[in-house]
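Data follows
____________
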Amino acid sequence: MKEKVVILGGGESGVGAAILAKDLGFEVFLSEQKALKEVYKNQLVEEGILFEEGFHTNELILGANKIIKSPGIPDSAPIVQEIKHRNIELISEIEFAYRYQKGKIVGITGSNGKTTTTNLIYHIFNQAGLNVGMAGNVGNSFAYMVARAPKDIYVLEISSFQLDDVKDFKCDVAILLNITPDHLDRYQYEMKNYVFSKFKITQNQTEKDVFIYCKDDQETINFMKANSEKIIADKIPFSIMEKVDRGGYLDDEDRLILNYKEPYYEMETKQLTIKGKHNQYNSLAAGIAAQHFNIKSEKLKACFQSFKAIPHRMESFLTLGGIEYINDSKATNVNSTWYALESLNKKAVWIIGGVDKGNDYSVLKELAKHKVKAIVCLGEDTIKIHQAFTGVVDVMTSAQSMKEAVKVASKLAQKGDCVILSPCCASFDLFANYEERGNVFKQCVREL
């Protein structure tokens, strides 16, 4: 009798896991509590994979030998609680895929910068001629790539939600960019739980593996000091605040220095196509990973100069009447928005708001005071925003839709200013995800 695998969740990771399970010869069933997107439903039909949508049928799920949970489903969900009560093996899609892949894994996690760094590393490796694929929390699911497009190297963007249900998953190169408050609603509003989840990227590493981390990030350093015996990989730091003896840093002449492996590498930050302090961090982390795979300096420099910023992250896409419009919809937490505001060189009308995940806006007050001339609040959680910035920013108003927010912001801005959508919050009150939010913002601007 075939072993039965049930997939909980019918998004990118769930459908990818179902396809891999089918290819491996398991009996496969997928259950999605909401309506499936047409693209995923069509995939399941074409693959001949049984599924249900709109509900979970317990008797069909709980008879499984193994259950693969999509990262968006919290442990507090009743079906998950019942699975755990019955001691059925419950794992994540990246754990399932890991068990059947044969390549090297570069895993990138952090509260901010994951997608940019993942794309940058993929760009460098691909341009260097390596047999590399990009998957995880960006692009295809890891499981789908293992099933249908296996690679020698997988560059994976990995969220804390994906790490929560790993057991044996291991990165040959693990990168932790930073840890700042995010998704605390998922972690009982306890920062220590969130930090622990992020560090699961190191839990199975050996002395032969590499852990690249930010020496400037206090949460990272505190955890490493308290748990030094648990992190046995070769620890390689990067910093823009001080010189490091082995790793990567920003020197006094505003140059990125990579001294992890010879030959050493240096590049002026003004030569980077992606700007801001956050991208200096991202570039250092990516550069160390490239040196680990022995990518030559001239290739690395060409890749840094040819890389294009990802959509929805500080995406300056249009200038109308002398006003620059910037789509930073991917900024779903306070720290990400901090770096966005810090990088601005002109006065801003700031569109902010959405689903608050336990944000502390106080760290943004000083930047807002000097860089923001007006705030337009959008979404369901605006009371905390008004409380935080009243008296800090001269003009504060609210909007009920993106179209209204863009119209109001365009009237508050003047020639030489910018209008920036950098929400600090999740998008699920008005939009399916940050991509939809960013695309709607851009469309509303174009319709002005």
About this structure: The CA atoms of residues 427 and 436 lie 9 Å apart. The chain has three domains: 4-87, 96-306, 315-446. The chain is about 35% helix and 20% strand. Residues 277-292 form the longest helix (16 residues).
